[in-house]
Amino acid sequence: MARNKILLLLLICALKIQAQPAVNVKAAPGPNMQAQPYPRERALREEAGAFYRVDTTRKIIYLNFTAHELYEGLPYVKHVLDSFSIKASFFLTGDFVRKDPQWVKQLYKDGHYVGPHSNKHLLYCDWNKRDSLLETIPVIRKDIKDNLNALKKLKIPLAKMKYFMPPYEWYNKEVYELVQGMGLTMVNFSPGTSSNADYTTPDMKNYISSDTILQRIKRYETTNTAGLNGFHLLIHVGTEASRTDKLYLRLPELLSYLIAKGYQFRRFE
After folding, report:
1. In terms of Cα–Cα distance, which of 194, 104, 115 is closest to 161?
2. Which residues contact 154 (CB under 8 A, 6 or more apart)?
3. How far apart are CA 109 and CA 173, in angstroms?
4. Whole-angstrom Cα distance, residue 189 to residue 192?
5. For a disulfide at 23, which of 83, 109, 169, 267, Cβ 3.0-4.6 Å?
6. Distance (Å, rounded) from C-alpha 209 to C-alpha 245?
7. Can you give the pTM of this predicted structure?
8. How many of the other CB atoms lie within 10 Å of CB of 242?
């Protein structure tokens, strides 16, 4: 009986692996493994304060992923990163950390940056009136502290998670100053490629397909003088089921293209 159960488990694992798209590594990724401090002295800031892009003279990309309630693509994303020997940055909410701590431990153990993304993924300020807070400063401070505490319980040192990406990648100057006062550095995605819109679903007016996102990434790379140099490229590891064209499933294609263009990858350090 025990032997039959083991054979059944092995069969299930084999079927799951076969169900994932094949990863075809076409470029030697060795240089992408190097870890270096984030060169903030050469970084660009948004008007509200966060760093959104770094040295535009070097072909370096900071590959970033966020996760909250949806993260069905995380096993595949990790598999692809492992195949390319690339270290990335994962910004995780407290809800995610508590729900699946083993994933957090594994990402940290594998050498990826693991950092805070808020505790409950609250929308801190109004989409249209950015200077208007939707939560009080004490509530926001607690939200961030609870996120940090959830990570600290997994033995991740505070000194190792000093970069914070705000929930919804949306904040204002008041939130920025609060985050700075907590000893964290706020970072955000680089605009221009629509990669951050990979969460949108076909029923939304702002829906953007993965084909279109990849086209925009390539167009930005070829039409801008600095290309994607210093980019903070953001991808979500999970989306609603109604979005069937998951951008993360195109990650091997994207990474192969960028490596062929001479880009190297960094994590926040």
Report:
1. 115
2. 97, 101, 104, 105, 108
3. 34
4. 10
5. 83
6. 7
7. 0.89
8. 10
